[in-house]
Write a structure and sequence with these properties.
heterodimer, A: 195 residues, mainly alpha, Rna Polymerase Sigma Factor, Chain: A, 2 domains, 0% strand, disordered N terminus, B: 216 residues, alpha+beta, Jelly Rolls, 3-stranded antiparallel sheet, 5 helices, 27% helix, 24% strand, elongated
Chain lengths: 195, 216
Amino acid sequence: MLSETPDNQTSDAARWARLIEAVAVRRDREAFAALFRHFAPRIKTLMQRSGASEQLADELAQEALYLVWSKASLFDAKSGGAAAWIFTIARNLRIDALRRQKRTPTGDTSETELEFQRDEGPLPDAGMLTSEIEARVRDALSVLPDEQMRVIELSFFHETAHAEIARALDIPLGTVKSRLRLAMARLRSLLDDFS
Amino acid sequence: MTVHHHPPDELLAAFAAGTIDLGQHVAIATHLVSCAKCRGAVRAMEHVGGAVLAALPPTAMSDGSFEALQRRLDEASGNSAAVRRRGRAFRDVPGLPDFLDSYPDSSWRWIAPKVHLRPIRLPEQSATRVFLLRSSPGTRMIEHTHTGFEMTCVLSGSFVHAGGWFGPGDFDFGDGAVDHDIRIDSAEDCICLVAMQGDLRLNGVIGRLLQPLIRM
């Protein structure tokens, strides 16, 4: 299995998937604590970088891990990696939090989840194992030039992404867009090899 | 269904990152309904999101946060499959993402000869307006440009313009620089979902006369 590969990141990914499974099947508190230790502080960083206050970021990170606990049985190791799954939980929470400012208080916060539900028909990478996709994405990311990686990282934070990235990196907006486009094209070509 | 025109990659990335507004989200989600290739790209970008998240520097959680969470876990049933509320809005239009069916429904209204519009009212403020546009065969859309951008997803029928032929599933992204001169070339009505920011500017004398009537 994956855990036998010497690559630390690969074994991390496999370990996280096992931890989530342990939470789903056995309601394993220790497994949950391990997930909390790794992901809660990083989700907090993500939220703060997205503009949340320290307190809100802390609450959202707790809420994200609460959802990891209560939705663990919905995690499908075959269709998504553990980190990607937790990322989508955090992403949806962040969108919900932003919306609470815009929507009426009766607004249903489970909307975001529905809005991201995709009818997963046959995918071009059907048959490709999640671990392979993860490895591909990781390989692709690791060979991206720093400047493109920086733009990708920042693009995962702000609603006004491109303009803010341009300001943060002190480069023109057009450069942000072209770097992102280059990075995406590269990622896509690596994944397309499989389809 | 063979899809020929896709959203630009950076738009798919922004969709996966959750950084676009709801109006644009609706347009991308509509394209994803009929495009497996882009569903794959979005999934790949979610893996990128996971990789980015896992590698972020940690920020210490507040004291007692884990203990507080533990108490909540005792009360959680551990069985919270997403409940799907199904409404009926827009169910008569094929090719739209499911979540629109809980939005307020609306009806078609005439906006120009052979062209009808049906607004999609979003449950939150969005700088992007979304509507369905139904055009009869042979319709030539008035030549126009816009001040913002326009995303068009073809649901049925087809149209052509200088950028190519657009059939069901195709996604047309136009920014302010684009001059549209669209002709509906299908034998049946062409229904599209449009997400738009900014204002249309109709070109030509007739267009300028119609402008006040066709505020989309």
